[in-house]
TrEMBL record:
Belongs to the universal ribosomal protein uL22 family. The gene is rplV. One of its GO terms (biological process) is translation. This is Large ribosomal subunit protein uL22. GO terms for molecular function: rRNA binding; structural constituent of ribosome. The keyword Membrane does not apply. Pfam families: Ribosomal_L22.
């Protein structure tokens, strides 16, 4: 059985969030939480909160046991990009892209 949690429109670049997501893919929940708590990345905190939400969904909505769950799937998609401009020399404008991410975590109890 599976449970899912989503986080949308987070103001961190998808490339940076994928570094954290790749480190917990196919890990047990206790191991994934330990990895996220000890990682020195800004995106590890929202991913940890999202993982805890997915575990809570699994326990409360589907009646699964938290100690038997694994991170079955985690993926990071690109959200809309905020476009801003910065003044440069000779009256030019330099575009700044503020990227956003959509994160999805699926946890499973590994029973087929």
């Amino acid at each position: 059985m599976e449970a899912k949690a989503k986080l949308t429109m987070i103001r961190i670049s998808p490339r940076k969030v994928r570094l954290v997501a790749d480190s917990i893919r196919n890990k047990k929940i206790a191991e994934a939480v330990a990895i996220l708590q000890n990682q020195d990345k800004r995106s590890s905190e929202p991913v940890l909160k999202l993982l805890n939400s997915a575990v809570a969904n699994a326990v409360n909505n589907n009646g699964m046991e938290a100690d038997q769950l694994i991170v079955k799937t985690i993926y990071v998609n690109e959200g809309p990009t905020l476009k801003r401009f910065r003044p440069r020399a000779h009256g030019r404008a330099y575009e700044i892209l503020k990227r956003t991410s959509h994160i999805t975590i699926i946890v499973s109890d590994d029973k087929k």
